[in-house]
UniProtKB/TrEMBL annotation:
The keyword Ligase is annotated on this UniProt entry: yes
UniProt entry keywords in alphabetical sequence: Aminoacyl-tRNA synthetase, ATP-binding, Ligase, Nucleotide-binding, Protein biosynthesis, Signal
GO biological process, one term: prolyl-tRNA aminoacylation
Residue ranges of domain Aminoacyl-transfer RNA synthetases class-II family profile in the record: 59-310
Domain of life per record: Eukaryota
Protein name: proline--tRNA ligase
One term of GO molecular function: ATP binding
Biological source species: Eptatretus burgeri
């Protein structure tokens, strides 16, 4: 055999050896770095953490228990808060007649391509095609009109937890842009403008709390620009989050004041209590928060080891793993070890901590460490025979990787304290990240430079739609510096309620033409 042939032979054997090993042991960890390939990193995190399973309809995904449980925590908190405001839950049908949908003619036009229609039952064509709700204004407001005669019928404050369908054609991404998603949609009708306007902000506050207190995601509160507001309403308020890994902002939730616009279209009116025979139109709001929030959390806190869950939304907050169970370990010590782990788990559950033990004996401790790390469990507790003798255990925090040795008798207090600490640390880390990436610019040059270095930017702005169009067009780039992908133009994200700086008197819009009205936050966005 020639030398070349031997080398070839060795390499081909090596090749098949590696191939068969990799088929036997699929790679468990995240194989790309967040900072190197964000979209591949994201796909791996959401699937390997067991949040998402792919599905054979494009833009639709399975929400597995690991993700759905986050949604349940959000639901529980938000539902409790809106009930304090007198909002009641209900359920309206998911189908909309063509005539009801088209009552809302003005702004429907832009959305029309996204509406999904049912046209057949079996092979038979329906007499009238029926739309699947993309949102429920046109489903609910004809009913509101029936229910309102007098000011005593107001306010109506309804909410529903449901799915909606928007057949988008942009690149879909689990949680962030899906054709079907879960949300809550609140729809309220009030006798006075003031009553409605107050509620818009109360709801926005609850949205900010969902993000900041539960998902540990800092948000910027503000009002949407004329271009970006809900076209059917008077004004839109919003909470915006920021993903530093992509330099892109993301709309986190919106709360709209609709004025009488919809009341006029759907004839939601009542007799003026002060002037009988005079009809008044109801003032309405609508507000929504979606499962996109889970994608935002993933993007912001996830790292190169996988998902990182803030303790308040983690289905499992503490996982307890027995270590050092070898063949040489005496039976009585093995039994004692498992009993101790189980005791820890029970003691934590008694104190309201979502603790779980992992006694599976077909997986090694190392495998389990990786597994639970990938799934983002906030604290891993390791217990070995030596720890038991010393009446200690080791706690490893997911957010920093730090190991803490802890005395057994202080277990509950320490773990509870550590969970609170992790929750705050995640929030503070993300808050600092936002602060470091949200800057001011007063010229187009500085604006462009900041944008291209992955920042979001507050600029003096006149508020005109045409000017916002110009900004978007002007800030778009053919090639992004590092990825080579085209860089989209900047959108108006919001007019922050608390801008970084007050507008100087006589300030000019960033475009250099009109007088500026306010600082507006601009950025590339999802
Ligand atoms: C806007 C407005 C509003 C209640 C919310 O943002 C919160 C909850 N609704 C939703 N919007 C549409 O009105 C719309 C309409 C159609 Cl027909 C569509 F296909 C897509 C839509 N997307 C958003």
């Amino acid at each position: 055999m020639s030398c070349q042939c031997i080398i070839h032979c060795v390499f081909s054997h090596l090749f098949f050896l590696i191939l068969s090993i990799s088929l036997l042991f699929p790679r468990l960890g995240i194989e790309v770095k967040k900072e190197e390939n964000l979209s591949e990193w994201y796909s791996q995190v959401i699937t390997k953490s067991e949040m998402i399973e792919y599905y054979d309809v494009s833009g639709c995904y399975v929400l597995r228990p690991w993700a759905y449980s986050i949604w349940e925590v959000i639901q529980q908190f938000f539902d409790g808060e809106i009930k304090k405001l007198g909002v009641e839950n209900c359920y309206f049908p998911m189908f909309v007649s063509q005539s009801a949908l088209e009552k809302e003619a003005s702004h429907i036009e832009d959305f029309a391509p996204e509406v999904a229609w049912v046209t057949h039952s079996g092979k038979t064509e329906l007499a009238e095609p029926i739309a699947i709700r993309p949102t429920s204004e046109t489903v609910m407001y004809p009913t509101f009109a029936k229910w309102v005669q007098s000011h005593r019928d107001l306010p109506i404050k309804l909410n529903q937890w449901c799915n909606v369908v928007r057949w988008e054609f942009k690149h879909p991404q689990p949680f962030l842009r899906t054709r079907e998603f879960l949300w809550q949609e609140g729809h309220t009708a009030h006798a006075t403008e003031k009553d409605a306007a107050d509620e818009v902000l109360q709801i926005l506050d609850i949205y900010a709390r969902v993000y900041e207190e539960f998902l540990a995601v800092p948000v910027v509160k503000g009002k949407k620009t004329e271009k970006e507001k809900f076209a059917g309403g008077q004004y839109t308020t919003t909470v915006e989050a920021f993903v530093s890994a992509s330099g892109r902002a993301i709309q986190a939730a919106t709360s709209h004041h609709l004025g009488n616009n919809f009341a006029k279209m759907f004839e939601i009116m009542f007799e003026d209590p002060l002037c009988p025979k005079q009809k008044l139109y109801a003032f309405q709001n609508s507000w929504g928060l979606t499962t996109r929030s889970i994608g935002v959390l993933t993007m912001i806190h996830g790292d190169n080891q996988g998902l990182v869950l803030p303790p308040r939304v983690a289905k499992i907050q503490v996982v307890i793993i027995p270590c050092g169970v070898t063949a040489s370990l005496p039976e009585n010590e093995r039994v004692a070890l498992l009993a101790k782990c189980h005791e820890y788990q029970k003691r934590l559950v008694c104190r309201g901590v979502r603790a779980s033990d992992d006694f599976r004996d077909n997986y090694s401790p190392g495998w389990k460490f990786n597994h639970w790390e990938l799934k983002g469990v906030p604290i891993r507790v390791e217990v070995g025979p030596r720890d038991i003798r010393r009446q200690e255990f080791v706690a490893v925090r997911r957010d920093t990787g730090e190991k803490v040795v802890c005395r057994e008798d202080e277990m509950e207090a320490l773990v509870i304290d550590l969970l609170a600490n992790i929750q705050h640390n995640l929030y503070n880390r993300a808050k600092k990240d936002l602060q470091d990436h949200m800057v001011i610019a007063d010229t187009m040059e500085v604006f462009q430079k900041e944008l291209d270095s992955g920042k979001i930017v507050q600029v003096p702005f006149c508020g005109e739609v045409s000017c916002e169009d110009w900004i978007k067009k002007t800030t778009a780039r053919d090639e992004e510096v590092d990825t080579g992908a085209p860089a989209m133009g900047a959108k108006g994200l919001c007019i922050p309620f608390e801008p970084l700086r007050q507008l100087a008197p006589g300030a000019i819009c960033i475009s250099g033409k009109e007088p500026a009205k306010f600082y507006t936050l601009f950025g590339r966005s999802y």
